[in-house]
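Appendix B, example 12.
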Amino acid sequence: MRPLTETEIRASFVNCSKGEVKRMHVPHDLEEYPWDDLDFLGWRDPGAPDRACLVTEYDGRLLGLALRSASAAARGFTSRSLCSVCVTAHTGGGVVLMSARRTGEAGRQGNTVGKYLCGDLACSLYVRGKRQTAAGRGLDETLSLDAKISRIRTNLTAFVERVTA
């Protein structure tokens, strides 16, 4: 992913109001992000842990989604869950159900689309081995790194299409 500015990020959101975008927390250390290793930019709002944001390139443009995380029940360390975007195994609360309000009339009526995602939205870093989960070593897969990256993009595109349909 190419490096993004705060202005570009704020202008990309499609499923929230201009007021919500204006009040949204955007990371201030964008120049320190590992852009070459990211398939999308994702972060949690430190002031509101149930809120998260995701920005990706879709259909030749930037597209941002405001997300809400479901309240997670405490799970044991031996309990594992898989992220539905990168298929990384996490223990405890490492995978969270995140929902995005749909765009258009459906969103105004309160319709949402949910997806189980890595709680820290670092899917790209887990797949590339730049970050490790508390579960330790990931799944034994025969897929190449390029195939895993393609899977992230395919799964994320399917989520974006459901939100914007």
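The radius of gyration is 15 Å. The longest strand covers residues 61-69.
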